[in-house]
């Protein structure tokens, strides 16, 4: 072969020969890692230099058992202790040495030193393939980072709840904002003033949501302003009733008998005052629906309906007055002042007078005075699954207006009883009993009472002696043993 390849002119073609050497050995695995031999047993206490999983199904592994001696016969206790340093733990990965297609990965959530081995409690992330017995397995660990310093507090998000106004005992009327639960009103009256600024319709109503507490004020009913009273106590101190529909308000005519106002919750409506009822509806076109715990008055009728339609779902309705014949638990009291006679539906309620003895009727019909302000249209009362109890010995449980100083007073009522019990303490011999049109009392006819009875019964007889009064439908059952007042036999 020529030495001078650039200036060679001899035409030689000798080739250059190159010999390739053998492959070098694989490099060591990197990272914070140790190597072990895989043991296919799922039992605890792995033998020296081995590592085990607690489940043969890779996706179901929840514990890893690592001997404190690795494949190089080196004690690695310090390495394993680092997994729990600062309680931060971290991510652990097992893979077959030189074959990274076989691996298992998860997060360490607890570490226990078991003397000859460590138990790692783990949460499974992912895996590929499986390990075989004696496979060289590399365990590598990546700790969670140190928690950084707490950042500055962000601004509180403003959450608005459309068409809702909040009332709470920690509220401030002057600083309150509608639709803001964090800015409640202190008083129901201030919340109502705010609600009145909205444009309201039957399908676009406003809700006043009242937090638990005692509110010494009344609720005036308006068109399409509803109330969630929760567990409140509504206690009017003076002026108007606890819930009041005034005759001066023009209530909208609704479709499909939709209510103008719905009041719901488990509230107690309680009036301790003279001449102030718990609830009164005077609104000629007002449809009011009330869900509550009880309606109570100490010195007046608990419920007065003069016009409109009132529907009540309550556990009890009662008056604590004992001395006035003009006061009842429910007073259906109208006159020619009101263009429409009232309609009242009561569901699932105990309706009663003072149980220590009283002079009152439980439910009283009054339509005004003859020749003065009489409205001779029939008022309507329907009782569904109710219990009516009278402890008066001189007045019927349900009757027409009767008082010696009201000789010209008249009452006209349609009474529907559906699964309702009536208890009276007044003997029928005094022309009282359970239901009475008071025809034989005092000077003259008091009006008429037409009773529609479905599945109800009473412990004293009905006395309907006016020819215009009659039990129109159903069978009246007279029983001497009536369950009333939480099942106590009276």
Characterization of the model:
By secondary structure, the protein is mostly beta strands. Among the domains are: 33-143; 301-489, no CATH class. It contains two helices and 36 strands. Helix 2 (188-195) links the parallel strand 8 and strand 9 (206-210). It is elongated, with a radius of gyration of 43 Å. The N and C termini lie far apart (136 Å). Residues 479-490 have low confidence and may be disordered.
Secondary structure elements and pairings:
Blueprint: E1 33-38, E2 50-53, E3 63-67, H1 77-81, E4 90-96, E5 99-113, E6 117-128, E7 136-143, E8 164-167, H2 188-195, E9 206-210, E10 214-215, E11 219-220, E12 225-228, E13 233-234, E14 243-245, E15 261-264, E16 268-274, E17 279-281, E18 287-299, E19 303-305, E20 309-319, E21 330-333, E22 343-347, E23 350-352, E24 363-366, E25 379-384, E26 387-390, E27 398-400, E28 411-418, E29 421-424, E30 435-436, E31 447-454, E32 457-458, E33 470-473, E34 477-478, E35 483-484, E36 488-489
Parallel strand pairs: 1-2, 8-9, 9-12, 10-13, 11-14, 12-15, 13-16, 14-17, 15-18, 16-18, 17-19, 18-20, 19-21, 20-22, 20-23, 21-24, 22-25, 23-26, 24-27, 25-28, 26-29, 27-30, 28-31, 29-32, 31-33, 32-34
Antiparallel strand pairs: 1-7, 2-3, 3-6, 4-5, 4-7, 5-6, 35-36
């Amino acid at each position: 072969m020529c030495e001078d390849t650039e200036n060679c002119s001899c035409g030689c073609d000798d080739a250059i020969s190159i010999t390739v050497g053998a492959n070098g050995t694989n490099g060591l695995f990197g990272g914070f890692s140790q190597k072990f031999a895989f043991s296919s047993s799922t039992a605890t206490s792995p033998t020296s230099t081995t590592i085990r999983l607690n489940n043969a199904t890779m996706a179901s592994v929840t514990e890893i058992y690592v001997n404190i001696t690795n494949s190089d016969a080196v004690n690695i206790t310090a390495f394993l202790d680092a997994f729990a340093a600062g309680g931060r733990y971290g991510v652990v990965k097992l893979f077959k040495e030189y074959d990274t297609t076989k691996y298992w990965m998860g997060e360490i959530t607890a570490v226990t030193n078991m003397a000859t081995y460590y138990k790692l409690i783990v949460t499974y992330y992912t895996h590929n393939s499986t390990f075989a017995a004696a496979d060289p397995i590399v365990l590598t660990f990546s700790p969670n980072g140190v928690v950084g310093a707490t950042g500055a507090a962000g601004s509180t998000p403003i959450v608005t709840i459309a068409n809702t106004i909040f009332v709470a005992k920690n509220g401030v009327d002057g600083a309150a904002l509608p639709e803001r639960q964090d800015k409640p009103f202190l008083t129901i009256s201030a919340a109502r003033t705010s609600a009145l600024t909205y444009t309201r319709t039957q399908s676009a109503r406003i809700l006043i949501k009242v937090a638990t507490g005692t509110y010494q004020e009344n609720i005036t009913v308006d068109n399409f302003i509803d109330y969630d009273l929760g567990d409140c106590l509504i206690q009017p101190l003076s002026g108007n009733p606890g819930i009041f529909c005034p005759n001066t308000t023009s209530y909208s005519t609704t479709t499909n008998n939709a209510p103008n106002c719905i009041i719901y919750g488990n509230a107690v409506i309680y009036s301790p005052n003279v001449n102030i009822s718990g609830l009164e509806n005077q609104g000629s076109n007002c449809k009011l629906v009330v869900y509550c715990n009880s309606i109570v008055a100490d010195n007046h009728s608990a419920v007065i309906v003069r016009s409109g339609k009132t529907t009540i779902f309550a556990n009890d309705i009662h008056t604590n007055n004992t001395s006035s014949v003009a006061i009842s638990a429910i007073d259906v009291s109208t006159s020619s002042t009101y263009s429409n006679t009232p309609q009242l539906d009561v569901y699932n309620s105990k309706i009663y007078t003072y149980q220590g003895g009283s002079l009152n009727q439980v439910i009283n019909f009054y339509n005004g005075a003859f020749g003065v302000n009489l409205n001779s249209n029939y008022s309507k009362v329907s009782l569904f699954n109710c219990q009516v109890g009278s402890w008066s010995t001189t007045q019927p449980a349900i009757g027409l207006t009767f008082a010696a100083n009201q000789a010209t007073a008249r009452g006209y009522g349609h009474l529907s009883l559906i699964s309702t019990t009536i208890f009276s303490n007044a003997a029928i011999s005094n022309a009282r009993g359970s239901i009475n049109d008071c025809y034989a009392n005092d000077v003259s006819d008091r009006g008429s009472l037409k009773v529609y009875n479905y599945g109800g019964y009473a412990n004293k007889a009905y006395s309907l002696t006016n020819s215009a009064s009659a039990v129109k439908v159903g069978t009246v059952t007279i029983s001497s043993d009536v369950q009333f007042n939480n099942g106590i036999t009276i």
